Amino acid sequence: MLAVTLAALPSLLLSPSVPATGSRARAAAVRMAGDGPSFGDLDGSTARIGIIKARWHPEMSDSLIAGAKEALAACGVKEENIVETEVPGSYELPLAARYMALSGSVDAILPVGILIKGDTYHFEAISDSVSSGLMSVGMQTGVPILFGVLTCMSEEQARVRSIGPGNHGPDWGRAAVEMALLRQSAVGGPKSKFFMGFGDSGEDDAKPMTRPAERIGF
Predict the structure, then answer these.
(1) Domain extent listing, the chain
(2) What is the pTM for the complete model shown?
(3) By three-state DSSP, how is residue 41 classified?
(4) Per the count of CB atoms within 10 A, which of 3, 130, 201, 205 is most buried?
(5) Comparing C-alpha atoms, which of 76, 83, 94 is closest to residue 178?
(6) Do 89 and 130 meet the contact criterion of CB atoms below 8 Å apart?
(7) Residue 113, strand partner residues
């Protein structure tokens, strides 16, 4: 019996069904967080970036946003071209992102939220709804919407991915600049709007745009 157990031990250690724990789990999480995409030189001097913060888990959300803003600054994004607002929770992020996209004030939007698994189905329902909603906003408006929502099984996982060397914020910031530049190239420049029946025709760009979204911080 002991021989069988020892023989099976290597495969058990390699099996993805056996979760890592303690320092091994933290090290693996940090390595995974560092395996993000590579970015070349990004000139974000004309990019207009929106950031929407969900107020749950503020320490971690603030750390993610700080990391994103450091990356934006490193890419040359001007402080006055960063539009920030906040909503109560992650479930409200898609609608806020839609308002911001339709305001014509930004080239890309980074919604930031943290969802942590609990004892009920709430986590799955919110995660699915938010991810689907954010994708839908981007497809409907033509404004790139980043997925800056951590969906974690524990608070420890969330902290590893938001505070310290595993902070996802810098990569999100660089991705926002890259997608903003992609949008600009697609619609004809930094001051162009992607019209889907919203607003005017864009013929008079010198005319200030009146929009209800100004009332909620955009």
Answers:
(1) 41-185
(2) 0.74
(3) coil
(4) 130
(5) 76
(6) no
(7) 149
Pairwise CA distance, residues 195 & 199, whole Å: 7
Residue 114 has pLDDT above 70, yes or no: yes
Q: What percent of the chain has pLDDT over 90?
A: 64
CB 50 within 8 Å of CB 96: no
Report the pLDDT value the prediction gives residue 38, as an integer from 0 to 100. 86
Share of the chain above pLDDT 70, in %: 70
pLDDT of residue 218: 57
215 — alpha (psi -120 to 50), left (phi > 0) or beta? Answer: alpha
Residue from 14, 20, 54, 17 nearest 154 by CA:
20
What is the sign of the dihedral through the CA atoms of 183, 187, 193 and 198?
A: negative
Q: Is 215 helix (H, G, I), strand (E, B) or coil?
A: helix
Whose CA is closest to 111, among 161, 48, 176?
176
Confidence of residue 13 (pLDDT cuts 50, 70, 90): very low
Q: With a cut of 60, say whether residue 154 has pLDDT above it.
A: yes
Are 82 and 69 a contacting pair, CB within 8 Å?
yes
| Arch. (CATH architecture) of 41-185 | 3-Layer(aba) Sandwich (3.40)
Q: Closest Cα partner for 130 from 119, 141, 122, 140? A: 122
Catalytically active residues are 122
- 3-class DSSP state for residue 160? helix
Q: pLDDT tier at 29 (50, 70, 90 boundaries)?
A: very low
